[in-house]
Amino acid sequence: MATLPDAADISNRNNPRQGNCGCMGKVCERTRIPAGLLVSFSMKETKRPTIIDVAHAANVGASTVSRHVRGGKSVSPEVARRIEIAIAQLGYEPNTLARSLRVGRTQTLGVLFPHVNNVFFGNAIRTIQTEARINGFTVMLLTHQEEAKLQQEQLASLKRSQVDGVILVPAAETNVAQVRALLGDTPVVAFDRSLGSAIDSVLLDNYRAAREATEHLLGHRHSRIVAVNAPYKLQPLQSRFKGYKEAMEAAGKHAETIVWHESEQLRKELCAALQKKRGPATAILSMSYSVTLAILSTLRDSHIALSEIGFIGIDDMEFANFIHPPLTTLAQPAEQFARLAFRQLLERTSGSKEKPVHVVIAGSMMIRSSCGCKSASSRRL
User: What is the pLDDT of residues 119-130, one digit of tens each?
Assistant: First the structure.
C-alpha cells in the first residue's frame, strides 16, 4: 500500500526557501507545511501609491503635490507638469475620504426633488449636476414622491452622508423646524417652493404667471374659464389659484375650479363644465404639468377635441408642439432657477452668513395655438 511522503521529504525535493510566514527552515515551525509550498501560495501585495510617492517621483515636496491636487495656483507650470506625469505613471488617486475628515467637507451636495418626470425638474437637475461638476462637487440625487414620511427618510439619509448642502423642493406642509431637526445646520436652498423667510429660496412668480395666463384667455373672449388644480396643499398651486381668481374677479367673471383627485372624478366634473347647456366653459387653465397630462387624457377619452376650447397650461411640456393644436404653456426657466440655487448654496457652503436671499423669477408665455392665437411666439412675463 502506497504511503504519502512526509513533510521533510517534500521539503527536500522542492529545494525549499523562506516562506511567507518568515521561517527559515525546511518546514514551517508553526504550520508544519514545507516552506517552499507556502511561498507558492502567497499573494503578491500591492501598495496604493501615496502623495509621498508622487513627491519623490516628481522631485518636489509633498506639500507642493498637495497644493497642486487641491487646485492651488502657486505651483509653476513646469512643476505641475512633473507632478501630473508622476500621478499618471503611479496611478495615484487622492484620498477624498481622508481629505473630507481633515477639512470637514465631503464636496457632495444633496438634491431632493419630488420626482424627475417633468421638463422643469429634469432640466433643473441636469443644470445642477453640470454646475456641481465644474465646481468639483458630486451630486447625491433623491426623490420624495410628495410623501412627507419619505422626505423625512431622505433628509436623514443626506445628513448621514454628510453632504455639504441641500437643494430641496419641499413636500406639502413642510416647515423650517422639520427640516432643521433632520439636517441640523447643513445649508439649505428651497427650490420652487418656499420654506419661509429663514431659508434661501428660488421661486417662480406663481401669482403673476396664473394671472397673466388667465388674462390672455380673457383677451380671446373666453368669458367662462375653468381652472383645474392638483389636490396638494402646495404654496405654488395656492398662489396660482389666487392669480387666476383675482384676474377673473377683475373682469367681472365667476372663478370656477376643479380639483383633480382621480381620473373618473375629473372626467365627470370637466365634462359637466364643458358640456353645460347654459353657459358652458369655453377655456381651461391647467395649474401644473401633471394636471395637464390628466386633462389631455380626459379630453381624449371623452372625445372632446382640444381645438374646440381654449387652453393654457402652467409648466412647459416636451411634446407641446406635437399636440393638435400645439399647447400654449407658461414655461419656467429651469436653467436659470438651477444656477441661482446652486450659486446660493455654494456661498452658504463657503461660510456666507448673509441674510437669507429670496429670488422670484418671472416665467415665459410660450404662445402656440391652443389659447386661440394664430401664430407662435414667446413672451417674458
Answer: 899 999 999 999
Q: What is the CATH number of domain 107-204+335-361?
A: 3.40.50.2300
Q: C-alpha grid cell for residue 296?
A: 389631455
Domain segments of the chain as ranges: 7-41, 51-94, 107-204+335-361, 206-332+363-380
- How far is it, in rounded angstroms, from Cα 30 to Cα 23? 9
In the chain, at which residue ranges do the beta strands (DSSP E only) sit? Answer: 108-113, 138-143, 165-168, 188-191, 200-204, 225-229, 256-259, 283-286, 310-314, 328-331, 358-361, 364-367, 377-380
What is the rounded CA–CA span in Å between residue 346 and residue 209? 29
User: pLDDT of 19-53, one tens digit each?
Assistant: 445 555 555 555 454 544 444 434 445 678 888 88
- CA atoms of 301 and 279, how far apart (whole Å): 23
CATH class of the structural domain 51-94 = mainly alpha
Burial of 105 (0-12, 13-18, 19+ CB in 10 A): middle
